[in-house]
Description:
Elements: E1 3-7, H1 16-31, E2 35-38, H2 44-55, E3 60-65, H3 69-73, E4 80-84, H4 87-97, E5 101-103, H5 108-122, E6 130-133, H6 140-151, H7 157-160, E7 163-166, H8 169-177
Parallel strand pairs: 1-2, 1-5, 2-3, 3-4, 5-6, 6-7
Amino acid sequence: MKSITIFCGSSDGLDNLYKTQAYVLGKTLAEQKIILVYGGAKYGLMGAVADGSLTNGGKVIGVLPHFLMNREAAHQQLTELILVDSMHERKQEMFELCDGFIIMPGGLGTLEELFEIWTWSQLGLHKKPIAILNLNGFYDSLLKLIQSMVQNGFVKKASQDLVLIDDTIEGLLIKMRSYNFTELDTNLSTENM
Length: 193
């Protein structure tokens, strides 16, 4: 993989583990010569992952809507900062620039990004790996909800399996490298669950 988009929080969270691991993820990508694509902010996990890559000689591309320039405060040391007009354009640009996605802990925006990119995969609009870095069980409740959706016939098991999950950076990257997209039956009725 040449580039990975990271979706994560613009806040630090309450457990320092998240910020520390965001930095380590950025560092790991730099060491493996993988370009980091992310939301462009200097704060929170977003800033930590960028700092981890930049401090270790990595290339970092930030994508930030104009209206968030002051609110999220653009990172000033990026290899490249791309300014766009909307949140949708931001996701589209981040999608086009990467070979895969890693989702770290975050809030509503991170969840929205995860579900949109997951839905695009389910519909066959892309074949890129989507991976959740489930630090300290952060996403356990969400994964339990998805399992319930499968058990109740609202999500196909094959759609659930499109997302890779690991609680370590190295484990996640190994899974992403060996990922092989499987075409899904895009008939969304429950008959083929």
